[in-house]
Specification:
363 residues; alpha/beta; 2 domains; ten-stranded mixed β-sheet; two-stranded antiparallel ribbon; 12 strands; elongated; binds S-adenosyl-L-homocysteine
Length: 363
């Protein structure tokens, strides 16, 4: 006898129109009133229910029937860490035990949620702890969206207010998971009403994904982890540079830029004596000067296994000055949540602690 496991559709990971159609059909088959689908949609997109049992305005039998037919991804909170600066990091345990992280970053004017797109990361950038810890698996759209649902609920209940911006700057390389990322963007935008300009996809430079984003009518923001203005230096930091060398990446960005109205953010990690050497700021200005760009300079956040240090204050200021003198707006991105290992490049989830790190090439 063979047992076939039926995979239930995950309401958290369905496009809103698909969820609506499936719910309508489900209730029609059960002879239920049409408005039932709307009730579930409200629990899903507005009240952020974490399970069918919470949907208390549905009869118990209907809640049971929903459970049999659908899934509703809701990872458990394995750990919550709160920084002295207000940053809050959730460590989520997925159904199969994998751990991922999301980070809430409050500022006076916005509340940004940084979410993960993969468990671990395969990109192995030499300065990033997530890459060192290795790759585990892709996340499904429901698993990505459920970080937003869970964090938003937590933010509401803990006096943080509503999430205003979402950045794909957690664990993983979002454009290496397009099958889940692209539906996720649509779900956040059309299902939860998050404006496309308030959603930023950060990539290390996955060219096919950038080209796909250039074609999208919605103005999702793109951030590119450039980190070096030339091929030689970049390939020492980012293995993917060998596959998509700088000129090819810039070509893809030109297409994105031409699509109109989409400002590109360039991220540039400032590592003392590595990425901040004399002349690099000028070279950077030359490389990105043609774009409608903004540069975020990220002082290197120390990670285990390297003795690299963040650039000195004077170098940071000098970089900003050189870029701005060439008409390129730039800012130093203040690190948030360092004390809880929630800052850029520090996310690696606890379960990966102690696993043998990928050997770093000498640079
Ligand atoms: N894979 C995506 C998403 C990661 S976003 C990307 O590469 O863009 C996290 C940002 O933090 C990226 O710009 C990444 O390069 C940067 N980062 C990684 N490790 C860092 C570190 N130790 N210090 C500062 N920034 C780091």
């Amino acid at each position: 006898m063979t047992v076939t496991a039926t995979i239930k559709p995950d309401l958290a990971g369905l496009l809103p129109e698909d969820a609506e159609a499936m719910l309508k059909q489900h209730f029609a088959e059960r002879g239920q009133a049409k408005y039932r689908a709307g009730q579930v949609a409200k629990w899903l997109y507005e009240r952020l229910a974490s399970g069918f049992d919470e949907m208390t305005d549905l009869p118990a039998a209907e809640r049971e029937a929903l459970k049999e037919k659908f899934e509703l991804s809701s990872p458990a909170v394995a750990k919550l860490s709160r920084s002295v600066d207000g940053t809050a990091k959730h460590l989520w345990r997925l159904k199969d035990g994998e751990l991922i992280e999301s980070v809430l970053i409050p500022t006076p004017s916005r509340l940004t949620l940084c979410i993960s797109s993969q468990a671990g990361c395969a990109m192995a950038c030499s300065f990033c702890a997530t890459g060192w810890a290795g790759y585990r698996r892709q996340l499904g759209a429901g698993e990505i969206v459920s970080q937003y649902r869970g964090a938003r609920r937590w933010a509401r209940e803990n006096g943080y207010g509503e999430i205003s911006n979402i950045v794909f700057m957690g664990m993983g390389e979002p454009l290496m998971n397009p099958k889940s990322l692209f539906p996720t963007l649509a779900i956040l935008n059309r299902g939860y009403g998050v404006g496309a300009r308030r959603i930023t996809v950060s990539t290390v430079g996955v060219v096919p994904g950038i080209l796909q984003m250039a074609e999208m009518p919605e103005q999702y923001r793109l951030a590119v982890s450039l980190h070096a203005p030339n091929h030689e230096l970049r390939q020492k930091l980012i293995p993917l540079e060998k596959k998509y060398p700088l000129p090819v990446l810039l070509d893809a960005l030109r297409k994105f830029d031409e699509a109109g109205g989409k400002r590109i953010t360039f991220e540039y990690v400032m590592i003392d004596g590595v990425t901040d050497l004399p002349g690099l700021a000028e070279e950077l200005a030359g490389v990105i000067g043609e774009f409608n760009a903004f540069v975020n300079l990220i002082p290197f956040n120390p990670i285990p296994g390297t003795d690299w240090q963040p650039s000195k204050r004077a170098r940071l200021t000098e970089f900003v000055d050189v870029l701005e003198a060439r008409g390129i707006p730039a800012a130093v991105r203040e690190s948030r949540g360092r004390d809880i290992a929630a800052a850029c490049g520090q996310l690696r989830a606890e379960a990966t602690e102690g696993r043998k790190p990928v050997q770093m090439g000498s640079i």
